[in-house]
Specification:
single chain, alpha+beta, Jelly Rolls, Arc Repressor Mutant, subunit A, 2 domains, eight-stranded antiparallel β-sheet, disordered C terminus, activator, transcription
Length: 278
């Protein structure tokens, strides 16, 4: 069942009122929103738990300490994993003119997070001078955020998208590239070339990255490391732990124990993505 929106539809879909609305919300139950769009731009993230966001361009898993930017009018769906302590800032269209025109995963500053939390307490549409100064800080900090490698780009070719959606539905599927090519009626060499060209990742690197995103979701929900490893198609727990450490710089056990409050996906020379278009 879809969750109630963080902000009323009247405000989300309106260019009127103040240029910035902000909300904080905590929930012990997972939240999920069906694909939708709104007139305002949205920056949102979590202080606890993991957030998954799906757009036409790709799939992003956003851990605590990062945020995702959705420009006005861009369709997106979102889902939380684990206890939810989240926040969002909604910007009027004319306040988004010099912000990225495509969805981006961004680093988050402590100053911006604190200012958004303060803005979430504002009740009136007319801001007093002190509130206007905080709003100005939010505007400046928004424009100072830097993109981080977090999204998993989706291919555009219909045959490749069919494969990508099948893997998202079942990340444990261990079919080899030749098998996928036969299934999608595409030549293996064409699959290899076009997948890398359209996503910035070799096919196997893309699949491993998807699995790592799924691992974050399941760790946030409290699943045991062994269960996650086997459910994601790894032959043994050691292989999963090694891949997780190579991707995030920490073991899944240490991450699940709360010994790392922020994560950044790393890239090896063999699976380096193309730079984000932000």
């Amino acid at each position: 069942m879809p969750s109630q929106p963080l902000l009323s539809a009247q405000r989300v879909q309106s260019a009127g009122g103040r240029w910035l609305y902000a909300v904080d919300q905590t929930s012990h139950s997972p939240r999920a929103t069906a694909p939708h769009s709104h007139a305002r731009g949205q920056l949102f993230g979590t202080d606890a738990g993991v957030l998954t966001v799906q757009t036409a361009e790709g799939r992003s898993v956003v851990p605590a300490g990062q945020a995702i930017w959705i420009p006005p009018g861009v369709e997106h769906g979102a889902e939380t994993h684990g206890p939810f302590a989240g926040w969002a800032a909604y910007l009027a269209p004319d306040a988004c003119e010099d912000l990225p025109e495509v969805p981006c995963t961004l680093s988050m500053s402590a100053l911006l997070r604190a200012a958004i939390s303060r803005a979430a307490t504002w009740a009136d549409d007319v801001l007093d001078p002190a509130q206007q100064r905080i709003a100005a800080v939010i505007s400046d900090e928004l424009r100072a955020l830097r993109p981080v490698p977090g999204a998993l780009p989706m291919p555009t070719d219909a045959r490749l998208r069919k494969i990508a959606h099948a893997l998202i539905a079942d990340p444990s599927d261990t079919r080899r590239l030749q098998d996928w090519a036969d299934w999608a009626a595409i030549a293996p060499r064409t699959l290899t070339r076009r997948f890398a060209g359209e996503t910035g990742y070799a096919f196997e690197a893309w699949r491993h990255r998807l699995r790592m995103m799924c691992a974050l979701e399941r760790l946030a929900a409290g699943a045991p490391v062994t269960t996650i490893a086997l459910d994601l198609g790894y032959d043994n727990v050691s292989a999963f732990i090694a891949r997780f450490r190579a991707t995030f710089g920490i073991t899944p056990g240490r991450y699940a124990a709360g010994r790392c409050t922020t994560l950044t996906l790393t890239s090896s020379p063999t699976d380096k993505p193309t730079p984000p278009a932000c």
